[in-house]
């Protein structure tokens, strides 16, 4: 079977995942223009669409399904809805709740790409005789000298989504298409308008798609219920050990958080305090000054490699990204089986277990791992 990387052959049978937003609609249209036989699909991810996001925000609503269907009609391709709500709830929503209950900070978009869009969808597509899945992600695919498919950053650095695709392995990349990787967002919107797509000016979705009002803490409080390891505890000053406040659940906090702490007394020096550590079993949240957030090393687990598994990565081209829209950090990376040890050449701030570390060599994504531990810069 042909591998649809950069300069993919024409005539592939392609499933275009259409969220109802402008990016996926233009990606589907470009796949058609590239000579592929394209079928549009919309993923029904909510057991009850009203229980997830409301409004036209590009994910998980009946409006979005209708927008995707209208776009497919304009493009002139068949369109179907695939119900993956049970799989999404188990692999993404439940994982999100479990991670927060354990005091970690997950990224559900990575988990969705890993488990849903490029696992469940791709598996079904290949079983049905399709060759590839096309999405509206901003990333590029290239064929390396070794014949493997490489994942690279998008041409538009501001929209680059290679971080959330860092969980894809070689088999998944070999059956993926990212038609927007060489284009910026304003150009995509202009193209959508020129094609007569009504989603040309539809706003992007920025929050977690299954948290309807964007209130993560409130959503977790409602959903976790008795599953939460504690329903309250103390907020403690890390330096003095003094109790400076109380909370209703550790799941409402993330490392680096400043707002919403409701501390009963200010720091001795009057400076703001930030969440430094979360201990879900004891229910203790530790706070301290910004400089105590600085991390110089971290450990990752459950690595996912886009190609050949590396052993040591070092040099000026090696960087890591620690948040979806975060900066690149120069680093040295060592791989020891299922452990990835990262030494940051300059400290990074507010890094939490549960986040993903994505490793780059230049613009190429090498792979990713889930952060399990961090080492702070000594006080």
From TrEMBL:
Its EC number is 2.8.1.13. Residues 159-161 are annotated as: Interaction with tRNA. ATP binds at residues 17-24, 43, 136. Transmembrane segments: none annotated. Pfam families: tRNA_Me_trans, tRNA_Me_trans_C, tRNA_Me_trans_M. The record marks 137, 355 as: Interaction with tRNA. InterPro entries: MnmA-like (IPR004506), MnmA-like_C (IPR046885), MnmA-like_central (IPR046884), MnmA-like_central_sf (IPR023382), Rossmann-like_a/b/a_fold (IPR014729). Residues 296-371 form the tRNA-specific 2-thiouridylase MnmA-like C-terminal domain. Residues 224-288 form the tRNA-specific 2-thiouridylase MnmA-like central domain. Gene3D superfamilies: Adenine nucleotide alpha hydrolases-like domains (2.30.30.280), HUPs (3.40.50.620), Translation factors (2.40.30.10). The keyword RNA-binding applies. The active site is at 112 (nucleophile), 209 (cysteine persulfide intermediate). Keywords: ATP-binding, Cytoplasm, Disulfide bond, Nucleotide-binding, RNA-binding, Transferase, tRNA processing, tRNA-binding. It comes from the Bacteria. It catalyses: S-sulfanyl-L-cysteinyl-[protein] + uridine(34) in tRNA + AH2 + ATP = 2-thiouridine(34) in tRNA + L-cysteinyl-[protein] + A + AMP + diphosphate + H(+). Disulfide bonds join 112-209. The keyword Cell inner membrane does not apply. It is found in: Cytoplasm. HAMAP family: tRNA_thiouridyl_MnmA. Catalyzes the 2-thiolation of uridine at the wobble position (U34) of tRNA, leading to the formation of s(2)U34. Belongs to the MnmA/TRMU family. This is tRNA-specific 2-thiouridylase MnmA. It comes from Nocardioides nanhaiensis. The gene is mnmA.
